[in-house]
Amino acid sequence: MSTQGSPDVKPDVSRAALGVVRAAVIAAVACGAVLVGGLVLGGSVTEKVIPGLGDAGVLTRWGLPASRAAMDLLSALTVGALIAAAALLPIEAGRPGEGAKEGGRGPGRLSKDAITYLRAASWLAAVWAAAAAATLVFTVADVLGQPVGQVVTGSELSSYVGSLPQGTALMIVVLLAVVVALLARTTTTPAAAFGLLALAGIALLPAPLTGHSASAANHTVATTGVALHVAAVAPWVGGLAVVGVHALLRRDRLPVMADRFSRMALWCYIVVGASGLVNVIARLPDPVELVETDYGRLALGKIALFGALGWFGRWHRNRTLPALEAGRPWSFARLASVEAAVMGAAVGLAVALARTAPPAPAEPESAVKALLGYEMPPQVTPARLATLWQLDLLFVVLVVALGGLYLAAVVRLRRRGDSWPLGRTAAWLIGLATMVAVTQTGVAKYAPILFSVHMAQHMVLNMLTPIFLVLGAPVTLALRALKPARVRGDRGPREWLTAMLHSRYVAVIAHPAVATFIFVVSTFALYFTPLFEAAMRNHLGHMAMSLHFLAAGSLFFWVLLGVDPAPKKLPYPGRLLLLFVTMPFHAFFGIALMNLSQALARGWYASVDPPWGTTILKDQHTGGGIAWGFGEVPTFIVLIVLAFQWYFHDQRQARRMDRKADRAAAPGGRAEDDELAAYNARLAKLAERDKPE
Ligand code: HEM
Question: Could you tell me the distance, in angstroms and rounded to a whole number, from the CA of residue 70 to the centre of ligand 1?
Answer without folding.
Answer: 15
